[in-house]
Amino acid sequence: MTKTIEGFSKLSKQEKINWITETYFSESPEASKKVLAQYLNSDKQLQKLHDEFIENTISNFYLPLGVAPNFIINDKVVTVPMVIEESSVVAAASKAAKYWSKRGGFKAAVLSAQKIGQVHFMFAQDKADLVSFFDLHKSGIIESTEDITANMRKRGGGILDVELRDKTNELANYYQLHVTFDTRDSMGANFINSCLERMADYLKEHLEVEVIMSILSNYVPNCVVRASVSCPVEDLSGGQAYAEKFIKAIKIAEIEPHRAVTHNKGIMNGIDAVVLATGNDFRAIESGVHAYAAKDGRYTSLSHATIENGIFSYWLDVPLAVGTVGGLTSLHPLVQFALGMLENPNAHELMEIIAVAGLAQNFAALNSLTTTGIQKGHMKMHLKNMLNQLKATPEEREQAIAHFKNQTITHYKVVDYIEQLRANSMA
Predict the structure, then answer these.
(1) Is 265 tagged catalytic?
(2) pLDDT for 291 beyond 80
(3) 49, 148, 210, 401: which is deepest, by most CB within 10 A?
């Protein structure tokens, strides 16, 4: 059977499922259909809503929605929603939240909230003519977007500035309109792109330019939030020696890119989990964050720590372009639930919560790495996944969890233990 097909998007959902299962699961198409069907919503209206999020939908792909309670953020108690599949992340965040709740909690503040879009264009004539045009027409370029920006301006946002940037040293005849925005509680991608396309039209109407593209940037070094904790060194569980070792671990991530990538990945475990739960774009966040980590020419740690005058301080600066209105935030019922649990934060408040989740996750990882080691806690949480893979019975699970309570957990040891249990039961 051919694996190519014409007009797939025009097929009904059932016809799409039939083609997929008959083409790729020909020996057991009905079993494959059952797998897809068990993840569909019984509520037809809810399923229709999910079907329309993307194209060619054949089922839903679920990830667990967990919660990490007991966060104190700016003196307010917060229960943080987290969507993630990785074992131990939610438990680690919860443990960090509890730890710092007894030491003053987390502080967070938005340092800046500018977002960026660019019109990329070619101009082959005299640069002086372009500069003169821009000086005369800058206000007209901005005014060309007035119908688009009207509602955003009513909310206190809009276009903050437009710059003409000369990039001809890097690519012949290449210039940019570099535009900064305040999109308030919206992530603002569609708003920014609409404004940029209008500006591009203005350029084409008045100049001989070749507009290459008009698009927002997910690199937002001026949309940054800081999360931090601090306490007297003696209040830390391991005192001075613990604090110094913790700081050395961060220093290693600051100077060694191989360690920094994994260090920051741990931060993103916390950040991405909250970004997903609140219906924001984790791919945009990831690309922007990692670009920010390399902004000085070398990839480095996002978190930092010091001891000054007997005070241990630990903080994280991270760029986060997120929204609490528009997109999935107003469509997905579980996103609305998550935002409701957070008491419907505005975009700045959500930035603070997300950054705190990243710092908490980083603290939990470094705490384990510099004390007991990362695998002990992680593998204990992963044990349940291994038992599910082995299709352990309730009795086998209970015995295995008890057996490995104080044992080193590896996949080989778990397999061997379950096989022994089954061999003994057959004897």
Answers:
(1) yes
(2) yes
(3) 148
